[in-house]
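Hi Y.,

Following your request, here is the sequence exactly as I used it, all 80 residues.
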Amino acid sequence: MWVGLDGDELGAAHLDGRQRKLRNMRRDPWVAVSFESSGGNEIGMRHFLVVHGTARITEGGAPELLNRLAQTYVGPGTVF
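Below is the corresponding structure, written out as tokens. Let me know if you'd prefer a different format.
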């Protein structure tokens, strides 16, 4: 799942509103998102971050957000 910052919120886009993730968030909006770095500390443990919060589903805008996130996840100039 691609995630990016939008102001002080995390944003993710889904093109298919029937996805299980979205059904689960509609049922129970409490979410936890974890991030793991590619590097680690001196004993090999990876750095990580866990964010807890309440999801808000906004209809529309997924293709635009995915194109923006593709610049980070795939590379500059990528068209999703």
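Strands lie at 3-6, 9-12, 30-40, 46-54.

Thanks again,
Q.
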